[in-house]
Write a structure and sequence with these properties.
The chain is an alpha/beta fold. It has a single domain, classed as Alpha/Beta hydrolase fold, catalytic domain (Rossmann fold), CATH 3.40.50. Helices cover 37% and strands 17% of the residues. An 8-stranded mixed sheet has the order 1-2-4-3-5-6-7-8, sandwiched between helices.
């Protein structure tokens, strides 16, 4: 317990192994891992990468075999040349690493991937922790969608303009008062800025989409949101908590969409407590 507490407080003690790769249909996934015990898989948001989880790796690896990977086409994973299912990649990763069942922790888009996987492969999921999570089949409020479109319009001019437009979104409303958090978000986004220029998203959806199937989820579920995330995202998290049977709901005061980066201590405590109860 002392080791876990130290990792939670300092974010030290356990370091991820060097980057590895797993082949998948049409490409490869970059991943790294640390720790031993029950498996935990970390799934990042869109236009971000596995660096999102720098503060979670040591905290979780103190007790769990913790794996984070770059969802294609982000980070160091390959760019697919045709639409693919993110759930197929996740299944390939688990099989390659000989992980029969895993706890899935997903942020934003990564939460949507975790939900889809739990619907398609329920026997492989020990639990879900959904942080500011998306869900396939849902749509953003019109004003938030319009703001997001500005990012892709800016990308036509330059990647730097796209990053600036991304950082101006309401997703980061609280982070802007914390320069160290914004610098981390900017650094991760800049690594993925070329993806703002994609002609179309490379993701093939599950059918039917998850939005109308949340009641089918039987995995123990934790839903985490921040009260400073966008109204659309907050409403989405509230809907998840109400629609997934038995879901626990945690609201982190003062937090926006950057919970894993800017509110790591609060998130780590919530996730470790949740996983410890499974």
């Amino acid at each position: 317990m002392a080791r876990i507490a130290l990792a939670l407080i300092l974010g030290l003690a356990v370091q991820a192994d060097s980057t590895r790769r797993v082949p998948v249909a049409g490409g490869a996934l970059a991943y790294d891992e640390a720790g031993r015990g029950p498996a935990v898989i970390l799934l990042h948001g869109a236009f971000l990468d596995r660096g999102t989880w720098d503060h979670q790796m040591p905290a979780l690896a103190a007790r769990y075999r913790t794996v984070r990977y770059d969802i294609r086409p982000f980070g160091e994973s390959t760019v697919p040349d045709k639409p693919y299912k993110t759930t197929d990649d996740l299944l390939a990763l688990l099989d390659a690493l000989k992980i029969e069942r895993a706890h899935l922790v997903g942020h934003s888009f990564g939460g949507g991937v975790a939900i889809d996987f739990a619907l398609e492969h329920p026997s492989r999921v020990a639990s879900l922790a959904l942080v500011n999570s998306g869900v396939t089949g849902a749509s953003m409020p019109a004003d938030e969608q319009q703001q997001a479109m500005q990012v892709f319009i800016s990308a036509k001019e330059s990647e730097a303009k796209a990053v600036d437009a991304w950082l101006a979104l309401g997703l980061w409303s609280a982070s802007r008062a914390r320069p160290e958090v914004m610098k981390s978000v900017e650094r991760i986004t800049a690594r993925n800025a070329a993806r703002f220029r994609m002609a179309a998203p490379p993701f093939a959806p599950i059918t039917p989409p998850a939005l109308g199937r949340l009641g089918e989820i039987r995995s123990p579920t934790l839903v985490v949101t921040g009260d400073r995330d966008t109204p659309g995202n907050r409403a989405g998290s509230e809907s998840l908590a109400k629609s997934i049977p038995g879901a626990r709901f945690v609201v982190i005061p003062g937090a926006d969409h950057a919970i894993p980066i800017g509110w790591a201590k609060e998130l780590n405590e919530a996730v470790v407590t949740f996983l410890g109860s499974q």
